[in-house]
Amino acid sequence: ESTLGAAAAQSGRYFGVAIAANRLSDSTYASIAGREFNSVTAENEMKIDATEPNRGQFNFTNADRVYNWAVQNGKEVRGHTLAWHSQQPGWMQNLSGSSLRQAMIDHINGVMSHYKGKIAQWDVVNEAFADGSSGARRDSNLQRTGNDWIEVAFRTARAADPSAKLCYNDYNVENWTWAKTQAMYNMVKDFKSRGVPIDCVGFQSHFNSGSPYNSNFRTTLQQFAALGVDVAITELDIQGASPTTYAAVVNDCLAVSRCLGVTVWGVRDMDSWRSGDTPLLFNNDGSKKQAYTAVLNALNGG
Ligand code: G3I
Fold it and tell me: Out of 32, 171, 183, 272, which residue is the most buried by the measure of CB atoms under 10 Å away?
């Protein structure tokens, strides 16, 4: 196959991209995105500050621009993200305790009902674990509402849209030996044993010199899959875009039957949140980088 999406579909997977609504009017951007990918994540437009700028007043203008473009171009949509310590609107940053807990529940219900039946996977909770060696939860206003905030988010999400796969999503959880990975593993294991509804784990996979790709990523994916959840690579970008590393990540997903697919976090280097790292698959002029060819070859079976 000659595009990333079609090549991934040969094994029942998708190859997705993060889309920014305000770039869809760039014809180079839109034509690459339309041609190459068969799954879309809104880079910012479905986040809490974008969708509920005032408490109880939902705004899906930009979220729907991304959603409608994706559907009109035949792509499935990953929802990102419903409960997160970051990109909260000011009113939510100022809440705590039971009123914040209720606001989280109301937010999940408001956004998921707007997209009911239309989203393949939702990142219900994003980035809830601390960096470093503690294995602890990240301190945040949501965490301070009680350790059960994550399972409440997942139970709320299941009731709001039973058709969506419900994911927990985080970064620096790709290396099996890291404390953060083990902490996330123990949470998922606990949720599965107690019947908390979780269907998938998203590995953001923002690789750089401080958090490099390690070949034990495949072990990580296998270990989580063995708990009875799907896994996905949700925000892939690699500092310097080594073709070898890109191919290795794709091959790790292909080696795990429960790996649903791979999403890269932007189209061209200039579209990246860390453009100085030139971490993506396309040059700024829209041409394909060596990493693109390495990924396409891997998806085509080597
Ligand atoms: O839209 C405003 C614009 O009006 C304003 O003039 C400008 C001034 O700063 O800011 C613009 O908003 C920025 C937004 O991106 C859109 O470009 C925000 O400041 C900026 O903080 C925001 O960054 C996003 C970041 O999440 C915020 O946490 C990145 O685009 C986005 O790629 C990044 O994505 C995250 C995932 O959601 C979660 N995992 C990590 C990943 C990378 O940080």
Answer: 32
